[in-house]
Amino acid sequence: MDSYLGIDFGTSGARAVVIDEQACIQAQARYPFEMSKVSDLASCWKTALFSLLEQIPQQLRGEMRAIAINGTSSTVLLCDDAGKPVDVPLLYNDARGAAVIEQLRSIAPPNHTVLSATSSLAKLLWMSQLPSFAQARYFLHQADWLAFLLHGQLGISDYHNALKLGYDVEKLTYPQWLEKMQIGIHLPKVLTPGIPIAELRSEIASQFGLHRDCYVCAGTTDSIAAFLASGAQFPGEAVTSLGSTLVLKLLSRTRVEDAKYGIYSHRLGDLWLTGGASNTGGAVLGQFFTHAELESLSRDIDGSKVSKLDYYPLLKPGERFPINDANLPPRLEPRPASKAEFLHGLLESIARIEARGYELLQEFGADRLTRVYTAGGGAANPTWTAIRERLLQVPVVQPLNTEAAYGTALLAMRGVGELNRRGAEDTEE
Predict the structure, then answer these.
(1) For the purposes of burial, counting CB atoms within 10 Å of the CB of 318, is it exposed (0-12), middle (13-18) or buried (19 or more)?
(2) pLDDT digits over 295-332, tens only?
(3) What is the reported pTM?
(4) Strands annotated E in 89-150
């Protein structure tokens, strides 16, 4: 039976999921990152990738038809002609691009997605001023480079990763204003996520006992992979990720885009995945409560009752969405004596921010919200779910799967399926 491999490179580690033709999970593997001990980030990624391949049972490796990889959005690196990194990669949250934002404003259209200190293009512009840039020939995202290690073709990306590089995902081309920048490096060729790029390099196939004709497919970002895993598929359905931060993604027939409010849209076939990311979320809860306290205190809260406490829970000043204000201060007062009452106020306030986020997306023209799937640690809190359902006024449900690696495996399976379908059509003609 054919199998398909999805690999997820997140912030705390890498994961792999193998599925069969019915999308049932056949095997899983993990590789945790010990960031405090990592001196060479790219080498760590490579080690993780090969370790995950080794952990997959040999029989499944021999049945594998396709592999796809996701990475964190806007995690990037510069490579030479052989694909060797010429400097340290910059992670998704690295804000050194702030130094070139004014320069970028003079080039990019107003309120464009790239006008963020952490965008791929801001990072590239900042990196172009480094001494190591003279040795660089290719600019790649994390998922692009890891896939290159498997298929051997440099300079290929997907339009999910390339969005924050400035790629026009509506017209499927680099815009003229970006071409005019002439940064002096190869920008990646951009493909549809999941489309097979090439077969495995022969030495990789031999090393891991994989079929030589196993395809490596164009990848995606970790958050979109998690959306694909959820089972959401119709306009109006959304996925809220309640992890350390709060991330909203609403499937829409209309593209919504405005950097002024931290809103951007990814292309998803003929639809748009519109949303934004707030700095509020589970990390703020973790500042005040242990995991055990969150569980026990939540049981003492009646989620059907409104909390009168009005907070804006942040770890430090600065918010991205639904308010885009780098100096927005946290609001965590007044602080009641009751821990349960304080937690109720925090949960309700985060839920208000989520509701406002979806409201804003709809005000900009996105489809009306009909259902919300929840991923992340917060999904397991029934009290929080009740509060959110009351404020969102739509069903809040558990996703089919929350693993980004599972969504990436689906992407690989569908990509090969599309290739086979087109091949069959060509044969009939």
Answers:
(1) middle
(2) 999 999 999 999 999 999 999 998 989 998 878 999 99
(3) 0.88
(4) 138-141
